[in-house]
Write a structure and sequence with these properties.
- The protein has ten helices and five strands.
- By secondary structure, the chain is an alpha/beta fold.
- It folds into two domains: 10-123 and 201-216, Rossmann fold; 135-197.
- Strands 2-1-3-4-5 form a five-stranded parallel sheet.
- Helix 6 (135-147) runs antiparallel to helix 7.
- The radius of gyration is 18 Å and the shape is elongated.
Length: 217
């Protein structure tokens, strides 16, 4: 199906999880910076067919309010969330009609994730480049390393506990490894595994959402 912006206006809020440049190669849409309080209200005035929320601000500015999203839904706008702020809000509002997509959304909806700390990152305010690693990615990849036999259960627990204890703007694999008391050889093997096989789960969810919208239209 050929997508016509005149017929179906789609607004997507994204940033560190998936750059708008990369997103445009998948779906032609109106890409906007990470959503903040008031942005959905403004977006409604542009009469969108779909609003997709990937990224949003958490601490720098007031976060997007659930009531804004509910207003959009009540006006007949399809609102979809994934990856980060979108996943968090979708888990809160799925029973009211917001659609959630992806692993992170599922983790929030099941109550496995509960805090915005799990997806929070520091970003470059100009380019929206990610400057720290989100906890949800870290835990996903450490669990993958455990399943592959790179680390044992005790080491997994230590690594995840250390990652959680680090303030989100400073989270990185190097920082976690430097602060976790596990054998040096294990650290070396884990670092190699992360460098080679780590999955950006937030990005994957964002891509899944864009492909879902393509199928929807």
């Amino acid at each position: 199906m050929v997508f016509n912006m005149v017929d179906k206006n789609i607004i997507i809020f994204t940033g560190p999880s998936l750059s708008s440049t990369e997103a445009k190669t998948i779906l032609d849409a109106d890409y906007r910076p990470p959503v903040k309080r008031g942005d959905i209200t403004l977006a409604i005035h542009d009469n969108p067919y779909i609003i997709g929320i990937i990224d949003g601000v958490f601490h720098q500015q007031p976060a997007v309010a659930p009531r804004e999203i509910l207003t959009a839904i009540n006006k007949g706008i399809i609102v979809i969330g994934s990856s980060s702020m979108g996943a968090l809000r979708a888990a809160e509002l799925d029973e009211f009609g917001m659609k959630g997509i992806g692993y992170v959304y599922e983790q929030y909806s099941k109550g496995i994730l509960e805090s915005d700390d799990d997806v929070a990152v520091t970003i470059n305010p100009n380019s929206f480049e990610q400057l720290s690693e989100p906890l949800v990615n870290i835990n996903y990849n450490f669990n993958m390393a455990f399943k592959q036999g790179i680390i044992n259960e005790s080491e997994l627990n230590k690594l995840c506990k250390t990652a959680k204890s680090i303030f989100y703007p400073k989270r990185s694999y190097d920082m976690i490894l430097s602060k976790t008391n596990i054998p040096k050889e294990v650290k070396k093997q884990l670092k190699l595994f992360i460098d080679t096989y780590a999955i950006n789960i937030k990005q994957r969810d964002a891509l899944d959402m864009l492909n879902f919208i393509k199928e929807l239209i």
